[in-house]
Design brief:
Elements (H helix, E strand, L loop, with lengths): L5 H5 L2 E8 L5 E8 L10 E6 L4 E4 L7 E6 L6 E5 L8 E6 L2 E4 L9 E4 L5 E6 L5 H9 L14 E6 L4 E3 L8 E7 L6 E6 L12 E6 L4 E7 L5 E8 L2 E9 L8 E7 L5 E3 L7 E6 L6 E6 L2 E8 L2 E8 L4 E5 L6 E5 L7 E5 L5 E3 L15 E7 L5 E7 L11 E7 L19 H5 L4 E6 L8 H5 L8 H15 L3 E11 L1 H12 L5 E5 L5 H7 L3 H8 L28 E6 L8 H13 L3 E6 L9 H19 L2
Parallel strand pairs: 31-32, 31-33, 33-34, 34-35, 35-36
Antiparallel strand pairs: 1-2, 2-3, 3-4, 5-6, 6-7, 7-8, 9-10, 10-11, 11-12, 13-14, 14-15, 15-16, 17-18, 18-19, 19-20, 21-22, 22-23, 23-24, 25-26, 26-27, 27-28, 29-30, 30-32
Helix pairs in contact: 7-8
Length: about 625
């Protein structure tokens, strides 16, 4: 053992959402616990002086604090906090070391943006409850009529001098998603959707211009699905507005940076054909910066008129980028193979220096050796992944029991970073003597649009043989013991684990965390139904079956399962509802297959409570120990 305990994994704290002051002197970040012990996730705001890296906590209250935003003059920090009414966030202002609320909106504030006009803050908030709403609540007259009184985030303007909040009636009943002001202090770019519903809303996006001085708006037209990450820049032909969105027409596709020339309304895909995937677009006073998932690593580029110009490359991931207006200083969350993500600061061209150390308790832990894998699929496609060896072992000490952990998404990826999390993760198993394979099959992020698109309607096909090819390689190299193979995964990775044991008897144990077992049912009940329909290839209302999704649903192959399987699921999961695991459980019970089914009360798709996270970590090891290391 390496000294790694379940408590060390879940009791840590991680930095989130760094925000650089415009003058580059200070940085604020949120410090959040990995797990929750009460009803609320208590977070903290920290300030770092970038001249000497001295850090201090900015606030002292017990609260959920989030979304730090600086004023244009760098003198004031605004943030959200629920210190007065837990669960209901208000905008607070930190100035001269003291924090005070500047809103008292009964519905709470969802997001905020300090504007160039120093006395105005743009807010995103739902409507306040009316007297009729209060009466209905008292009388329990709370029948939900779908489509009626659906919550909508609306654009509102706060005047800091008077405390008065106004709601411009310019977007009708549309749900406002994101705001970005032009760098010269001009209009706001506003991204809206027809609904806040996850299944319907992201496919109905439109862009608008809003003038905060006149209160008028202009419709710029529709945008591609899942649009986000707005950024302005100026070019020879005037102002441009960019965003990251899915490449049309299929919902399961790689992301792209889209460029809308505001005057001409001409829109272009600025990253078409690139073998990497944009994840963030970050506004400056000149050309915006683009973060690309690039295989196992990350590339930072500048969006020049001729296309993206690479500025620097970073191992693993680079997340939640923040940049000074002049584009000279950036900060982001990034780590290494053996160190968790921390805030790092520097030039866009690198290198970045670490200015936080939020997990010192891991400094003395010995981790398993991690190395990238590169191999080819059966059809010749180049693939990558990671191999993590048991702690203290080298490949020549093999063969080892091997657990393959499939990633979620499928539009996600394994990056070359520390693989230690509350869910089944490589370093947690490596500490118990397992080798772990982390494959990046087709359908994932980091290799361009076509790579991601290739699984639409074909889940479990080539992506499955991609994974098997990597396992075969590790068996051939003497790393993996072919008689002691396990497979695990969560969400789409849970689908892959459930799929695997219906296709082969090679695995002696499997773990399925919040996994997809029936694509038709998920399209009908999951919160991202149309996205799931694109993956599964059909819906139940496509006519009399059999349907294409039946052929790629693990439950259809339950009679073939001979592998003992552990099913884990959150009771309140709306992304992949509990019924997915319940369905598989009943099928396995019907056919007499060895399995356990564990339900975590109060939990959604991501398990939050400390005791539940501890249970998952311990149960994961115990399950694989039982079947792979008897």
């Amino acid at each position: 053992m390496s000294g790694l305990t379940a408590e060390l994994v879940v009791d840590g704290r991680a930095p989130q959402t760094p925000a650089l002051a415009p003058d580059g002197r200070l940085l604020c970040y949120v410090l959040a616990p990995v797990s929750r012990t009460g009803d609320h996730l208590d977070t903290e705001l920290w300030l770092v002086d970038l001249d000497d890296a001295a850090a201090r906590r900015a606030t002292a209250d017990t609260a959920t604090e989030s979304r730090p935003r600086w004023s244009a003059d760098s003198e004031t920090l605004f943030f959200l906090s629920d210190r007065a009414d837990r669960g209901t966030s208000q905008v607070h202002r930190l100035a001269d070391g003291a924090a005070a609320a500047v809103t008292d909106w009964r519905a709470g504030i969802l997001d905020h943006l300090p504007l160039a006009e120093p006395h105005v803050i743009a807010l995103l908030a739902e409507d306040e409850p009316t007297e009729q709403d209060a009466r209905r609540a008292r009388d329990r007259d709370d029948a939900i009529v779908v489509g009626e009184r659906e919550p909508r985030a609306r654009l509102r303007l706060l005047d800091l001098r008077t405390g008065h909040v106004t709601t411009p009636e310019v977007f009708g009943d549309r749900h406002v998603v994101e705001l970005r002001q032009r760098p010269d202090g001009g209009p706001l770019a506003v991204l809206t959707q027809a609904s806040s519903d996850h299944d319907y809303g992201p496919r109905t996006g439109r862009l608008h211009l809003f003038d905060p001085e006149t209160g008028t708006a202009e419709d710029l037209g529709p945008v591609e699905a899942e649009a986000r990450s707005l950024a302005w820049w100026h070019s020879e032909d005037g102002w441009h507005l960019g965003y990251v969105a899915l490449t049309p027409p299929v919902l399961q596709a790689g992301t792209a940076v889209f460029d809308l020339a505001v005057d001409s309304r001409v829109r272009r895909n600025r990253t078409a054909g690139l073998p990497r995937c944009p994840t963030e677009l970050c506004q400056t006073d000149a050309a915006p910066l683009v973060v690309f998932a690039d295989g196992l690593n990350t590339t930072l580029a500048r969006l020049d008129p001729t296309g993206p110009t690479t500025l620097s490359q970073h191992p693993g991931r680079l997340d939640t980028l923040t940049v000074t207006p002049g584009g000279t200083t950036i900060a982001a969350l990034t780590g290494t193979r053996y160190q968790p993500a921390n805030v790092r600061v520097g030039s866009p061209t690198g290198p970045l220096r670490k200015i936080t150390n939020t997990r010192p308790e891991l400094d003395g832990i010995t981790f398993g050796a991690q190395r990238p894998l590169a191999y080819r699929a059966a059809d010749g496609l180049d693939l990558d992944g990671l191999l993590v060896l048991p702690v203290g072992k080298s490949a020549s000490d093999g063969p080892f029991p091997l657990v393959t952990i499939a990633h979620g998404g499928p539009y996600d990826r394994y990056a070359d970073r520390l693989q230690l999390f509350w869910f089944p993760s490589a370093q947690w198993l490596a500490a118990a003597g397992y080798a772990v394979f982390l494959p990046n099959p087709r359908g994932g992020q980091g290799h361009g649009h076509q790579f991601a698109l290739s699984v639409a309607g074909r889940v479990g096909q080539e992506e499955w043989t991609d994974i098997m090819g990597g396992i075969d390689l590790l068996v051939a190299e003497g790393v993996a013991d072919p008689g002691r193979l396990g497979i695990a995964g969560g969400s789409h990775g849970g689908f892959m684990a459930a799929w695997a044991i219906g296709q082969t008897d090679r695995f002696r144990a499997a773990l399925v965390l919040a996994g997809v077992t029936d694509w038709g049912m998920l399209a009908a009940t999951g919160e991202n139904g149309q996205f799931e329909a694109a993956l599964g290839g059909s819906t139940g209302w496509d006519g009399i079956g059999p349907h294409p999704h039946d052929a790629v649903s693990p439950v259809s192959f339950a009679s073939h399962v001979r592998t003992p399987v552990l099913l884990l699921h959150g009771a309140e999961d709306t992304n992949v509802p509990l019924g997915q695991s319940a369905y598989f459980h009943r099928a396995l019970r019907h056919f007499g297959a060895e399995h356990e089914f564990v339900i975590y009360p109060r939990e959604g798709h991501s398990i939050q409570e400390r005791n539940h996270q501890l249970d998952i970590l311990r149960r994961t090891r115990a399950w694989f120990d039982r079947w792979l290391r008897p």
